[in-house]
Structure formats: C-alpha cells, structure tokens
Design brief:
Six copies of one chain form a homohexamer. By secondary structure, chain A is an alpha/beta fold. Chain A folds into two domains: about 130 residues, Rossmann fold; about 110 residues, Rossmann fold (3-Layer(aba) Sandwich), CATH 3.40.50.12500. Chain A has a four-stranded parallel beta sheet, sandwiched between helices. In chain A, α4 crosses α9. The radius of gyration of chain A is 18 Å and the shape is globular. Chain A starts with a strand and ends with a helix. Chains C and D meet through α2, α3, α5 and α10 of C and α2, α3, α5 and α10 of D. Chains A, B, C, D, E, F: InterPro entries: Asp/Glu/hydantoin_racemase (IPR015942), Hydantoin_racemase-like (IPR052186), Iso_Racemase_Enz_sf (IPR053714).
C-alpha cells in the first residue's frame, strides 16, 4: 500500500531543498508500518514556508492537484504536510481515500494522552489559526495554550540546538503556567528535527511529533477500513453533476 | 470615499454576467450612505459559483490580488462578496484598511436583533462551513440552525418566486422548529434578489440581507475610525521582513 | 432622521452637568452621518453615576419612559447611554424602532476587529456584569478579559491625563497578559474623553469607543432597514392585550 | 429565626389578593423547618404579574426597599418571590444576609437530581430570560429546554385542573422530545398550586417546586453559616463611601 | 428521620480512627437540623485515604453495599463522605432515597454564593478529577480554578495550623490570581478541621465546608420531598428484570 | 510485541463464553498489524455484562489487576474491552504503558471522519454516561447524539439480523434527525458482530467499530512511541511513596 506525503510549499527549487525532501521521505519510510510505502511531493509554485493565512491559501491549489492525482493513481491515502492543515476540507471533498492533516492527527492523539495539551509552534502570527484549528478538530476544550518559539520555519534547522532549547523552554512554561500535561509540536519542520523525545525527557510530559502522528493516524484509518464522511465532505455539487452527466 | 466590492467568482465572462455585475453595483450604490462610492470587480479566473470548500479556495488568490490593489489605490475599505467570507483572514493580513466579510457582518447584526438566529443558505454542501464560520465570528452560542433551500447559486435568480417561497418555507421552520427569532440569508445571490423584506413580512422576524449588512458594517467601521487589529491579522512575517529590508 | 441618546443618570441637576450634556450632544452630532440628527436627554431622578447593579435598576424606569416617548415622537431609534445597557431588553419590548446598547454594539464591533477583545472599565464592582453582558450579546467566547482602572465614573474627566494613562496601562496588560488583540472602553464617560485614538496608538491595537460604536451601529441598523425581533423581544403580554382591547 | 418572602408584584390591592398572600404565607410556614418563621410582604406599586422584562424592572425598586428593610430589621434572609429572580444581584449588593432567588435555587436543585432539566413556565414571552438565567446561575449545560404552557400568571389558579394538565403535557414533551430527566416549575404561582407531586407521579421524573426550593435553599445556606460573596456582590461604591464617611 | 454518612475508606482499623469516626459523627449531629439523626459507617476494606482514581474505585464496592443496606433499613438519605463523590452515580441507580455527594453539594452551593469559585484540595493528583466533577455537576462555567495545598489527607489533622495557613495562602491566590469570589474546601478531612470560618475571615470570601454543604443539601432535598431522577439514574436493567421476575 | 485485550466482565464461566473469548481473540489477531500479538483475558468475578454505572464499578478492581499484571509481564499496551472505558483513568495511573479505552479511541477517530458523530449503543441506561465520556475525551462539541437500540448486551448476538437492522434504523435517524455525518457503535458486543460495513453501506456514512478503533489507536500510539502523561495520570501518591521507600 502506498501513501503520499504532500509538502504544500516549494522545497525542490534548490539542491538543499531536494536533499531535505529526500531526508524527509526517509524519515517517513523508517516510521512506516511494514507494508506501507511513503512517497513525497512538493508544490513547486507554493510558498517557501507557511507562516500566515496568506501563505496557507497560496499553497492550497497546488496541494489539491496532488491530492486528486494521488487518488487517481491508486494511493491508499495522503497527508497534507503542514501543521496548518491547509485545504484539508477541500481535499476530503475531492477524493474518497482518507486525507490526514498533521494538526488534526496530533491534537486527537494529544487528547488521549492527557487532560490538557499545549501546542508549541513557530511564530506568533500562526497562533490564532491554531486555536481555530483546535475548534474545527472539536477538541478546543482540551487546548491549554499555543506558544510560539519565535523562530521562523526556515531557521529551525539552521540552529537545531537553539530550536530545541527554545521548545523545551516553552514546553516547561506550557506545563507550569498553562496547566498542560501533554505537548504537540506545531510545525512539520519542528517534527522533522526528531527532537520530540529529547523534549519529552526534559519537560516530563509526552510530546506529540506531528510527523509521527499524521502517518500513524493515516495507517490507523486505513487499517480500520475508514475514510472521511462524504456527508461531511461532499463532492462539490457542480463537479458531482459533471460526473453524473459524463457517465 | 470609495469602497470596493469584490466578487470572488467569475461573472464577467458572459454578457449576462456583466449586466448582473452592473446591476449589483447599482444596488450597492443605492444602499450606500451619502459620500460613499462603491466600485465592483470580479475574479475572471475564479469559479462560476462557490458551493464547496474547494471552490472557496480557488477563489482566494484572485480575490487577494484585488484586495491588495484596492489598498494601494486608496480605497477606504473592501467587501469580499461571498457569504463564505473566503480568504477574509488573509485579506486582513495584507492591508491596513478594513475588509468586511458578509457572513461575519450578517451574523454580528443578527446577534443584536434577537437571541438566536438561523442562516438560510443554498445547498447542504455549505452547511458545515457556515457553522465553522459562526464559531470564527465568535457567535456560535447564538446560532440556532443552518438550513439549505437546495437550490444552486446559479439557479436562484432563474426562478425568483420559487427561491423566495423556499426561503420563506425554511425560515418558518427555522423559527418554528429550531427556535430562531432572526434570520440571515446565507448567500450573496440570495441577497441581491432583494427579497428580504418579503420574507420578513411573511415569517414575522427580521431578515438580515448580507449585501446590506456588509456595506453598512463597512461604513460603520470606517465611520468609527476603526480597522482590523494587526495583532490579530499580522502582516505575513516574510513580507514584513521584505518591507523593512526594502526601505 | 432623528435619533435619541438617553443618559440613564441625572446630569442636568447642575450647571456643570447641563454643559456636559450639551458637550456630549455636540460630540454625537459631529460623529453622525449626514442626515442624522441626534437629540439627548437625561433621567433627572436617576443615579448620579452607574457603578453597581443597584444603580442600574434605579436608572431603568426613567429610561424606559424616554424610550416610549421617543417612539411616539417619531424618532428612528434610540441609544441607552450607559455601558451596562440597563433595561435594553425591556426597551426593545416596548417599541418597534431599534434601540442600541453601547456595550452590545462595542462588543460586536470588537468581534469583527480581531480574535479576542478586552474591556477596560471603571471599577471592579462592574466587572462581573460585563462578563454576563458578553454572554447575553453572544460573544463570550471572544472576551479575553475585563479590567478596571479603579477610577469612579465621576472622577474620569477630572484628571483626564491620569485616566488615559491608566487606560493605556491596563490596555497593555490586557494585550500582554490576557491575549487581547482589540480593546473596548467600558464606560460612556471614558468614551466621551475621546482618547481612544491616543490609547490605540500607544497600545498598538484598535480601541472601540462605545460612543462611536453605539451611534454607528444604530445608523447601520436603520440603514439596513432592520429593527429588533419582536419574537425575541415581544411586547409585554398584558400591554399587548390592552392595545388589542382598546382598538 | 425569621425570613422574609417578598412578592415583587402587587397582590394586596384586592381582598382576594390579600387572602392569597395569607394563603401563601401559610404554605411557606408549613414547609419551614422547626424554628423558622416566615413573613411575607408584597410591593403595592409593583406590577400585577411579571411576564416580561419590562415588568421585572418595574418590580425591582420596591423589592429592594423591602430587602434593605428586612436586613435592618434583623431577618436572617430573604426570598425574592418571582421565578425571574428580579433584582437578585442588586439585593445581594445591598445587604449581608443571604437573598435567594427561586429560579437559581430550583435550577441548582434540579442539577443534583439528574443530568438534564427542563423548565415549565407560563408564557413564551419569558422563555429567553429563563435561558439567560440558567447561564447566570452557571448551569446552562444542563438545561434541556424551557417550555411555556401559554397560560398567563393570573389565570393559573382560575382553572387549576387545566393548568395542571398543561404542565403534565409539556413535562411529558420535555422528557420525551428534549431529553429532560428532571423538571422545574418556572413560576411561583405554579408552585403555589402545590401540584408538583401530581405532575411528578404522572410524568415519572422529579418536579422541583420553586416555592420549596427557595425556602429549603435559604434554610440550607443559613444552616451552613453562609452568605453571598461581597467580592461577587460588592456594596455599591458610592454607598460604601457614604457609609465610611458617616462613621 | 435518620440519614447515613458513609466514609468510603477504612478508618475503624485503629483506635485513633475509631475515635475520629466518633468525632465526625458528633460534628455532623451538632450540625443537623432538629429531628435529623446522623449515623456513620466506614468501609473497613477500603483505602486508608483517597488521593487517586485508583483508590476511588477501590472504595466504591464497599460504599455501595452500605448504600443499599441503608435504603433497606429505612434511612431517609445518605452521604458519600469523600469529596471525589466516588460511586455516586451507581449509588443513585441502586436506591430510591436521595444520595448526596459532598463535591456536588459544595459546588452547587458555591454557585449561588458568587460568580466564580475555586476548590482548595489536597494533592495535585486529584486536580483533574475535580475539574471533571465540576462538569458532571454542570457548573464548570463557574469553576475558576482547583488548587492543591500539597498535604496528603492523612497529614491534614496532624499539623492543623500549617494546614489552615496553606489553605489561606491558596485561597488568597485563587481570589487574587484566578478571579474566584467564593471557595470550597475539596476534601472531607479539610472540612472536619472546621476551619472554614477562619479561612473565610482571612481571605474575605465565603468558604463552603463540604461537611456542612452535604448535610444541608441532603436535608433540603428531603425537606422538599425530592429524590434523584430514575430516568437519570435508572436501576441497572438486569437487576430491574430480576426484581420483576421475583415478584 | 504483545498487547492485552481485557474483557472487564465474566465470559469464561460457560463453554459458550469461552468459545466467544476465543472468537474475539481471533478477530483481534486478524485485525492486528504485522508483528502485533493480541492476548485476551476476562474478569471471572466481574459482571456478566455492563449496562449501568453499578456494573462498571464492579468490573474495575479485577480489570486493574490485569492491567498491572500485563505491565509487569512486559506487554506493550492494553485495551479495556468495554465501551464505557471503565477504570481507564485508574489504569493509566498504575502503569507506564499505554492503555486504550474503546470509547475514547472511537470518538477520536469519529472526530477526524466528519463534523458531528452519533453513538449507537445498547440501552437507554448507558446514554448519560456516554455523554459524560464524550466530555472526558474532550470532543463533546462534536457529539450529535447517543441513541439506544434497546437490546441488552447479551441479546445482541442471539438475533444478529434484528440487531443489525435496529442499528441501521437508529443510524438513519441519527443522520436524518440529529445531523450526524459519522457513527460509532457504542458497545464491544456490537463491534464483534462485525457488521459495521453493512451498516455504513446502508446508512451512507462511515461507521467506527470500537474493536478496530481501540486496536488501531493502540498500535498508533505504540508506533509513535507515545504513552499517557504521568502528569495527567500520576501514580497514586501513597503507592509512589511506597515504591520510593522500598528501593
């Protein structure tokens, strides 16, 4: 079974980016259950990183093209590889296979791990949309706080140690000041640092890595034979009419 | 003072559509307070109508281009002319002038008119996103229900009488079965039918026309000297960095 | 078109008070849209200021007399000029024209300006009733906090600079500690200081002046042809029976 | 120990009313625990019955006079004898003794009896204010519904059998359609019919009589040595200043 | 009339414990209204104290045996003497008489005393379950915070002064930092210290003693002729079938 | 890796029950991912089925013994095989490995599949506890309804066709009347009928089988390297003290 991990931004325009795409694919493949094959694509005309609603919207059309193509190509499911879950509702409208958003998957996993969770993310500019996401997922009652390390996405990996120590610092404050008993890392580039266990060991609470959460939730859905409700995410009416008409 | 009404879909590709654009501009101009001049534009490569999350996303990039251009051209504010308020958060990130969404404006006005309001919209496919909108606006406690007339956007004006009688029928059920004391019409093409007073007279509760609500809310904000919070809708960080760098 | 601004307290008993009434009328008239004429009355046997539930109740009977008289005299709408919105529900029961409460109007405008707003008000004694008001308005999900400057209503104008600097201080704390991105001034005497732009410039977020919000919301409702739902605010049953009987 | 039951309306203007006041006092005295003496007063210039926000406000000033007098006369506590709890917050501001509202007491008792309760009240015109009351009490999560028998207050006792059969009918619908497992009678005149056990036996769920709930809650508070928080209900600031000044 | 106070833990295994049981019975009897006789039992094979969900569950089977026996023996009602209200739902399923939980009773009384209450309890380990309890009771909207003195149950009485001073310290922080205007003591061993008035005098807000609240609420329910809804707490179906079969 | 599925009731007391245990183990093993071995145990002195809070409590002590034994025996995780998730919080206090409750797992999966889900369960007697469960899980905002087929647990498999047709009937009503777009089967004996796909095909929405959800969620947690937060579920304090003392 093959699943597709879609990077909604443009990483393939530089050699460095291409190597990072390869590294991420390898991380995902290592995590995958036996029998799961993970492919990865990016959106070459998407934004270089997503730190605003504006960039989220710019990433969506290209992402949706990949989702539709994956369904036609027989993939068993897809992951939209950004913690903003950009275009997730539209993706689910367009296809029958399960499409997983890392924010949704991480928040649901965080819900089972404790009573209140905090999200540690990159910049203040995305904090409000994280709160809206928690409501869409349906778990806002359990969201203790969203805190930002104040490091742009593209800087996270440049100084890995500083990034980790900032995540630890904010994680401690989320636990001590906001009452969180569980953390989720709110950015895929944070997840691909693979530092969640270091942070968990230091802060003393479980840390949900969105890379892991997204892949494991997708495998769980596929394993349970489930896909998203077409009553919740109906095929766009004019598209449905066209499909009927062209039969 | 000039304000811009942006049609996020493509109406100008046919003569009929062009005439409808002119008609809508005339409606808006007639409603405008003395001293307000209303311009109107559409998004020629946008969807023909918006009845899904998918079409919402497709409409956003072109809409945002108009918003940015309007701000540069000195408009005092803009309205995103779709009841889904597509791209509203991003629009507010990009500019300093107020940008109004008809759903938000209508729901806020409905909140002052009574205790519980219902939205009468076009198709079941947009009902869940209306509920999410009510939460984003912050008024979900007052939302009694969302009901769909089951008439596609592009059919509404073709049989105006049938559309009105369906809106009346669902309005009565919203009042009688869902406990609503106020209605909002959940589609701009419904609003431009200008049938809200007919419906209100029949159902016996106030009916918020989103065309009116959006324009009056925009005038109210401008009149009160207010624009959206840049702490809530910060300029995208990389764009802000670019602006600083290019000074 | 004429609208009536009702001061629910007694200001006209001293020359100083009479001059303040005149000043407030001039402020309102200056703010009004072309074609709107603003009259102002006070409640001579009302309390000298409203800083408790007790004083709110004392102000209501006289306020309601003015509301009824205004409707009979053909006013297009009325504003109850106290941020506690005293007697607003009863006023709407008694008349068909729109009656606006400054707290409701300000909170609804604050909702469109950002994600979370705080109210800056006078004394701790009114803080709980502000929270209840936010719930009645339907927007308690967006209320970040209510903070009191600890200056009685009647002292606000005596030391304008101190009042403004306290409002700025609490506004900064609301933003920094409570997560607000928008402020509303929770007292009409604060509003008539006309310092909202000074505060906004200092704190860096929009500040809703309840004087402006109330007038602009009333003009917006009238402009949109809307009045409050009689299903939400029915005429008192025995009064309705009397009206029917006396026909 | 003496407690005062305040009728916020005018019952003593007719002989019939005076006899009804005596009857109600006798009912209360019969319910009282050993050692509790119940006095009763009405508000002669209050409304003849309370079926609107308007009438609630008219009843408050006279009610508050009685509350203050009772405190000075050494009563151990007071009950505001209307299910709208009119002026309850102000009453608590003015005195140190506990003041109980029947709606609050009934809703709190209903909360312990089951998972979801419904209120059966008189007219549609008071339904929205019951919902607001449930929120003020803090128990809106447990409110299943509010249903009105459509019988004015002053008619309830005229046809006792019809009133009871309507309460039973609506109680059944609250249980069957709204998911209530407990009922509260939402009007003191309903309570003084003393039909709650008949209704409970028929509908099969407990029925909270607000007359009993108010008196028993007041006795419980006094018995536990508790009175309302002055932090929640502070003495009105100017009144407090006056008390300090006059020492 | 006799009521039973059930200690869900094992206190009778030592002489000291037996004397404490006697002391607690005397406290309860002193508080009881004229005509109420209070008996007390413990659960000898229960936990020595309850500071975890684990110990709560261990205490339930023995507690339920006492509840059933009390009903058969003609008691008018029972109190489950632990602030976790362990097994309260099951107890209500098994019998027709009212069964009161001190947490539920205290939280409901706290709701009438102010706008927001805090619970002062023993250890961090029980804080999350207190929050869940507040939701079950239906009053989570009014819960300001839960704070733990960090003293185990069995240590509370050993250094009474230190315990009281810690409760005062946390009470002050609940009021000053969390916005509480009312406190409830979240442990029966705290209640039996009978220090609530000392704490209230120091902190300046009412303090609900769960011993008093439970007994007074039980007396109030019995006095009002009320017992828990069998629709909410139905007799276990197989047990009901058995009862029918054995008639 | 081995995981343990614990039946909290007594099934092994009859041959029929023993065969059913074997069948359930085979179903679980068939579902398991490659590398997962599923063992199964029951609680011989537990209740024959769980249809009340009373029976839940009776099942907990024996269940917790199994959980502790499994942790000592090196299992990677455990499932408490009852949709009431009895004792789940205590189980997580006692061990470091993940312990999954089928209700929690099913509700979280239902959250990702749509906007609103309904639970189809056995008897009315467990409906209120399902609602409480949804709140504990943190997803009550998404719970559309809980509906009962009115068939006792032990009857479900006796007339499989009738059980399935009742589940379909209620599923249709949940979708049509309650607005659900996703269903979850609220009883493990329902799940082991393995009829979820039949129901899904008929009703037209995804149906979460709690057997599948629990196993896949446990595998996902183990695969992501996650276990429950010890800050949320701390080891019982006296037990922790004992462990420290006995080192």
């Amino acid at each position: 079974m093959k699943v597709l991990y879609i990077l909604p931004g443009s990483l393939s325009r530089t050699d460095l980016g291409t190597r990072e795409i390869d590294r991420r694919r390898a991380v995902l493949q290592r995590l995958a259950a036996p029998g799961t094959e993970v492919d990865i694509v990016d959106v070459p005309d998407g934004p270089s990183s997503i730190e605003s609603a504006y960039e989220e919207y710019l990433s969506v059309p290209g992402t949706l093209v990949h989702v539709q193509a994956a369904a036609r190509a027989g993939y068993a499911g897809a992951i939209i590889g950004c913690f903003g879950d950009p275009g997730l509702d539209a993706a689910r409208e367009l296809v029958e296979m399960p499409v997983v958003g890392p924010a949704e998957a991480s928040m649901l996993m965080a819900c089972t791990l404790g009573h209140r969770f905090s999200v540690i993310t990159v910049l203040e500019s995305v904090v409000p949309s994280m709160r809206h996401l928690a409501h869409r997922v349906g778990v806002s009652e359990k969201l203790a706080s969203v805190r930002a390390v104040d490091i742009p996405v593209l800087e996270l990996a440049k100084n890995r140690e500083r990034s980790i120590s900032r995540m630890i610092e904010l994680g401690r404050r989320a636990v001590g000041e906001d009452g969180a008993d569980t953390l989720a890392l709110g950015c895929m580039s944070m997840g691909f640092l693979e530092a969640h266990q270091t942070i968990a060991a230091d802060v003393g609470v479980p840390v949900v890595n969105p890379v892991y959460a997204a892949l494991k939730m997708l495998e769980a859905l596929i394993g349970a034979g489930l896909a998203h409700s077409k009553r919740a995410y109906p095929i766009p009416p004019k598209m449905a009419a066209f499909q009927v008409a062209s039969r």
